[in-house]
Amino acid sequence: MRLNGLGVSPGIGIGRALVVTRGTKNLQFRVPEHRIEGELARLDSARAQSRDQLLHLKERIAAAAGAEHAYLFDAQLLMLDDPMLVDRAATIIKTEQLNAESALRRALDEIASLFDQADDPYLRERKGDVADIIGRLCMNLRTNGDPVDLFRDVEGPLVLVADELSPSLIAQLDWQRLAGFVTDAGSWTYHTAILARSIHVPAVAGLRHASTVIPPGVLLAVDGSTGDVLVDPSQDVVQDLEARAKKRRAYERSLAEYGTLPSVTQDGTPIRIEANVELPEEAPRARACGAEGIGLYRSEFMLAGMAAAGLDEEAQYLVYRRLIDGMDGGRVTVRTFDVTESELGVVQPDGSNRAPLGLRGLRLSLSFDEVFQAQLRALLRAAAHGPLRIMFPFVTGVEELRLARTAVEHAAETLRGRGISPPPVPVGVMIEVPSAALTIDLLAEGADFFSIGTNDLIQYCLAVDRTDDRVSRMYEPLHPAILRVLRYVARGARRRSLPVSVCGEMAADPVLLPLLAGLGLREFSMTPASIPLAKQVVRGLRIGETVKLAGRALKAATASDVERILADFLSPARTK
């Protein structure tokens, strides 16, 4: 079987499917032989818990509504001992080496198909009772421990297949065992896709139903360039893919030399190239790839698997200190937490989920002063060990920036009260929403630098949800409006002599680098793996030519027109 989606992280990965749905509430995978007895024990324990719960419910109903209504639970109690259900699941665990949850789902599918074939409407309706008891069993399988612990000793390499894969789950995994990601949802600029490119793992998104049609434990081949996912490929196909992967690795090694060369155009214009990272461990790799600094450290990845309240000042300080030490004198820019309420661990009284345009980024930090102050104090302390900048996400206007600066000064005062004298730390703003871009001159009064987050800026300018694959084709970086906004921001920062960088995915696209340079941008931050190729492109440019390119692109009426202008600029015939 061949599935096709959107390739969001290039490369080829081959491994066994680990299926994750509903966060980590439904994990399906193949267990090693030595784990079979443990899975059977988990299943028996879940059956015992379910029996106790159903007996308790039966007693409550009998006491409240009469014994004649309690019979409803007798059927479910009998199902627990039916050889076609739990016993069948146990057999599947033994013979197919699936985890208990997967085996129960398989048993449910088998029974459901029998009910569907029944002529009696009453029997067909009983399928819901079976699904209910399976749901109870799976709930009791999840009651103890971290779900991720269940597959820590599953033999890799693994391909993670999910309906929607959160960055926090990825951050908890052993990346060395991951051969690829496959998700039902997502797009090129989805946070999970960005993280996949950062850690160099092939990924395909937007497959819609992959998590329901891919069996757990089956061999998968993921091509993150073409968007193909091959289910149970033949040995010949696997060998061909491995040969292609070997060629790709050889090509990437051929680019490595550019990482050591200066990032300067042919006419002598320096272009600063930095790295986007999620973990301090990536800093040495960023340096090896040629990064001059860290242009974006996404601090929210420290929250993986925990609420912000559990990440105290000292823990954060140690992370920032490691990041600075890892860059060995290179500049480090840390973005404060860019999360929503639920990601910060805030639970609404009504249990509802808030929209991403609600409390997010700097707005959220300003609303939770204790969390914000702990992060700012940790950053100011770490700044004593090397060049560090603080960057605020999702800023919409001057009022928020002033409040943020006041918060920084308050954190500094607290440290001085402890006898710690923090050094001056540059404070910057991410330009991610139109209101910030259009008031660049006003924000310049209180900012030391700017960084353009093109991923969010594009989606908010064009009213396109970048996580929705149904409209992903409308997410267009080359839209004339986006080019004009970028030029406006670049000019506004230059008038105030403030540095401005691009840290979104546009920066990592080697095809777009000449156009961005022509728009007046001279600093870029990208995944470490993208840096050698970016340097190769930069060293072949002449700024005068890129300015003419940008001039032509700014006159174009559509994104398609801009693409044709770019294609002409990059054509081999032009460069001869």
Name the poorly predicted regions: none
Distance between the termini: 45 Å
- Overall mean pLDDT: 85
Strand content: 5-15%
Radius of gyration, in Å, reads 27 Å
Topology of helices and strands:
Blueprint: E1 2-4, E2 6-9, E3 12-21, E4 26-28, H1 36-65, H2 72-80, H3 86-96, H4 100-117, H5 121-125, H6 127-141, E5 158-162, H7 167-172, E6 178-183, H8 191-198, E7 203-205, H9 210-213, E8 219-223, E9 228-231, H10 235-255, E10 272-277, H11 283-288, E11 293-298, H12 313-327, E12 331-335, H13 361-367, H14 369-382, E13 388-392, H15 398-417, E14 427-431, H16 434-438, H17 440-443, E15 449-452, H18 454-462, H19 480-495, E16 500-502, H20 513-518, E17 523-526, H21 531-538, H22 543-554, H23 559-570, H24 572-575
Parallel strand pairs: 3-5, 5-6, 6-7, 10-11, 10-17, 11-12, 12-13, 13-14, 14-15, 15-16, 16-17
Antiparallel strand pairs: 1-9, 2-7, 3-4, 3-8, 8-9
Helix pairs in contact: 1-2, 1-3, 1-6, 2-6, 3-4, 4-6, 12-14, 14-15, 22-23
Which structural traits does this protein have?
576 residues; alpha/beta; eight-stranded parallel beta barrel; globular
Give a short synopsis of this structure.
This protein is of the alpha/beta class.
Written overview of the protein:
The protein is α/β, with parallel strands linked by helices and about 575 residues long. The mean pLDDT is about 85.
